[in-house]
Amino acid sequence: MSEISPSTSAKQAPSGVLGLLHRLWRLASSVSLCVVLLLWLTVLTLLGTFSQTEIGLYDSQAKYFDSIFFREELWGIPLYLPGAYLVLAILFVNLLLGGLIRLRKKPKNIGVFLSHCSILLLIVAGWRSFHAKKEGHMALLPNEQSDLVQAYQDWQLEIREQGSSEALVIRDTNFSDCSGGKSRTFFRNALPFTVKVSDYARNCEIVEEGHPDLPASAKRLDRFAVLPGKSLPTNEANIAGLVVEIRDANTNDLLTEAVVGAVQRGPGQPERPPLVVKVKDKTYAIELTRERWRVPFQVKLDKFNLEKYEGTEKAKSYQSDITKTDASGEEKLRIQMNEPMRRAGYVFFQASFGKVAETAPYYTVFAVVNNPSDQWPTYACVLSGVGLCLHFLIKLAGFLSRTSRNRAVTSAPPTV
Amino acid sequence: MLSHFALFRKLPLLAAIGGSLTLLGACKKALPDRTEITETRPTFSSEAPIPESSDSMQRLGFGAQTQFRWTTPPTWLLAPGTQMRQLNFSFGPNREGECYMSMTKGREGSTVDEISRWRKQMGQPAVDATDIEALPKLDLLKRPCPLVKLEGAYTPAAGMAMGALPSAPRADFGLLGVVLEVPAMQAVLTVKMVGPKALVQQEEANFTSFVTSLTPVVAPETP
User: Fold this and answer.
1) Which of B23, B34, B38, B40 to mutate to test the interface with A (most CBs of A within 10 A)?
2) Of A316, A331, B11, B214, whose CB is crowded by the most CB atoms within 10 A?
3) Do A352 and B162 touch (CB under 8 A)?
4) How does pLDDT run across A350-389, given as a tens digit for each residue?
5) Given A210, A222, A355, which is nearest B160 (Cβ)?
6) B174 conformational bin, left if phi > 0, alpha if psi -120 to 50, beta if neither
7) Which of A272, A275, A201, A270 is nearest to A238 (CA)?
8) Pairing of strands B87-91, A329-336
9) Rounded distance, CA A69 to CA B23, Å?
């Protein structure tokens, strides 16, 4: 902290609004604030780690790390505490002001300056990744080809018109509160009907109306109902369900009401037709599904290689030989553990494998990540390394020069 | 150095900022009861054309892909099917019993293989064609098929996902099953019931009535 320019603090603090701004400026760039933020980040890390056993990784991450504020109860009193998103944003401002702007601009501080820059870059990389990263998976059987990636998390209700080039999307964040009698109606001007969502369950079983566990309040439609279950800690394993009420957008006449179960796609998953709605000679499909998106090339699984430890079913190593095809031509590649394929901003990791039946061939599963700030942490680490090395060398040079000066003083003949 | 950590002097300001932020955090804007759909995605060429209609059973995966009609016994509950279980039922006080129909097309194997596999799951040795000839018969699609009755410790097949470990054996279980080979379709049709021994014995009559109630929706290919 001694490297922070004293210019502002040395001057006499102004009074009034300017005085308050001056104090704010000093607080925002202070080491004290930095310490408080780092301590709070430690607390958040502990809370997040402990809560994982109870609520799972996904929910724990969302609650403590992706949030601006999170709610915690202490002796029944609700507390709204700052989440990691807000803390990191304040830490960024704090480091920018204190670690860069107020830092004394001297050659000997270049190492510290670079190290602070690297931490800022890390925070920016995290922010960029949080907002722009897309993660999903692609499962392929031998000789199967695809360019579609399916997200691991979160459901969305999709409305697709026959022959249309685009489908409407309602993310589950828009209806996650639609349970226990609460509902929400979704509309769009070009859509001839409205969609009212209710009875949403993040994890559920679709059951026949005679199911003994079905509460009396559950809507029973066409023999079926949504039986809500406890959310599983592994969010990917949760299977959502809901009830939709479709009404004519102009007359508000009820067109249909139905239970909608989540559609899972991939090897071993049976094909199921969507909910079909016909309005004025137009046909629409309504589905509750995971988000899917395209990658700008086709991936074909040529061969999946699996080696097991002798006498066991445990995998020793596994690789996928693939052909990547795009406008520029074909490329034969092997994807294996720690050797992902990086192409066009997408990274394909060898994630897992499986088979749908004992006699069926293995399918491969790639984890697909599109992260614009994928390499930024690497750059930040390099920058930090360079900064710390420089700082160490400068300090070492200073120490050596001081030592040699002291030696010269002590070895000089005493003056009488 | 110590003066820079004089946090206490800044406590009032920190508390004021923290308090304001906390109040801000408590204010969460809820979505209105009527919300406009603003998001879209391009459609995919691989997406199947939308059918003219879809019934709830198919759509929700109950009896998906079946080309059969059947009568559900009163104590059974239909459950969503899977790729391997075209018809799937559960029964019992805690739904611990299950009965399912599988039709695997293009599959190599035979009645002997299938029954030997079931016997292995119940901890019993494999059988040959002569043993199967001696088994009682039950009509499935109007064809007399060997009826398998087994008791013992049941070990379900290991999951197919990576790293899936074989399940622990479940003691005192019962298994009932019929197998029908359909060479014309290169298919094997099986109906299997498994659950606690007493429960399976109790549901045997329902198993028989379910198996004999199965009728193809379309004209069956000659077995």
Assistant:
1) B40
2) B214
3) yes
4) 998 887 766 678 899 999 999 999 899 999 999 999 999 9
5) A355
6) beta
7) A201
8) unpaired
9) 10
Inspect the interface and report whether the beta carbons of B4 and A357 lie closer than 8 Å.
no
Cα–Cα distance measured from residue A24 to residue A3, given in angstroms and rounded to the nearest whole number: 20
pLDDT at A197: 97
**Which of A162, A259, A354 is opposite residue B161, by nearest beta carbon?**
A354
Rounded to 10 deg, the angle between the A16-28 and B7-26 helix axes is 90
- Decide: helix, strand or coil at residue A46: helix
Q: Is A237 on the interface with B (CB under 8 A)?
A: no
How much helix, strand and coil, in percent to the nearest 5, is found in chain A?
A: 35, 40, 30
Q: Is the ipTM of this complex over 0.85?
A: no
Report the residue of chain B nearest A191, measured CA to CA: B37
How far is it, in rounded angstroms, from Cα B168 to Cα A405? 76
Count of A–B CB contacts within 8 Å? 193
Out of B30, B34, B64, name the one closest to residue A185 (CB): B34
Token digits for A13?
Answer: 């603090």
Q: How far is residue A22's CA from residue A20's CA, in Å, rounded to a whole number?
A: 5
Q: Residue A247 corresponds to which tokens in the numbers above? A: 């009404």
- State how far the Cα of A163 lies from the Cα of B79, in Å rounded to an integer: 33
Instruction: Read off the pLDDT of residues B107-137 as tens digits, 9 standing for 90 and up.
Output: 555 788 889 989 999 999 988 888 889 999 9
State the pTM of this model. Answer: 0.73
**C-alpha to C-alpha distance for A179 and A175, rounded to whole angstroms:** 9
Q: Which two tokens stand for residue A342?
A: 């990086």
Q: Tell me, what's the pLDDT at B56?
A: 86
